[in-house]
């Protein structure tokens, strides 16, 4: 046997070794982008059920169920994303396992309806557990070539495995109080696994790659929200005589979605994940950013139903279902990425204008304040660019 043949990868599999965190030109792969699209299906279904439940007047139930369902969507996406930035081999086994995970996402998506309708979590957790089992196999495969991060990969696999056993056991609980407490404990257990594992030894994440992945998912979720919001307004236009409020709502959708995009991509996100603490804050903080982006379209649907007289929700509360997701999104981006890269003016205007959006539901001109304050934020970001590595704005650096 020649040396060339003896060196051929066994079963045509590439060794799963840690990727170089300083790798030049590292970008999101087509498989990762394909993976994101399946998750957006789940986000869209969750947003649709949030809209239906809130329109029926069950605001509390809708919000709680949405936040729980969205945790499953976001957590499975986030775990794969951080794993891939460290150990992506893109060989056939890695691709097959990723596609099986995508099947788990579709099962989870099919289980969203039963959760909102009658608190039936069986199908949703079945899809979630399938995705997590695949991640266990990926972490175990990575452990063989992880070198100094070997124990970290094993802790990931063991922690995820233990959590899945507990999720299955949780399904057997009948008492509603114990069930609710158990749900919170299990969510905390899941988010604790990376904290414990990374404290043992950091996996080699790529700052530019991981923040590009978050940016891609943000664009997809914002696009889904814009599409859902536009369809809601278009469908409602033929059902009312006074179309001015609906036109205002449609304008709001476009301006606010564009402003959300502008705000999100203003700061250099890669600076936020230099340390373990910063990475955890960035990764976990995006739960609120993604969930708010998904809930925005639901809020627009609720507001449109309210204007048509087809909602059981109080009109003021209906308007808050649009305002609150916007506020959460903007404040979330400010906390995880803008604050450390902005001067005092930006760090005053962004959170202040975000909070002032909450005044919109109490004035007689629909959506005016929301649109006004989001435009003010964007103008401020245009005037004051992000700080450079020396703590100066781009304009200051040019003058000097």
TrEMBL record:
Protein name from the UniProt record: Low temperature requirement protein A
The protein's superkingdom reads: Bacteria
Q: Pfam families attached here?
A: LtrA
Which PANTHER family does this entry report, sorted A to Z?
Answer: BLL5714 PROTEIN (PTHR36840)
Chain segments annotated as transmembrane: 63-85, 92-115, 121-142, 154-172, 178-197, 243-264, 284-304, 316-337, 344-363, 369-387
According to its UniProt entry, this protein's organism is Brevibacterium sediminis
Region of interest: Disordered: 1-24
| Keywords on record | Membrane, Transmembrane, Transmembrane helix
InterPro entries reported for this sequence = Low_temperature_requirement_A
Keyword check for Transmembrane: yes
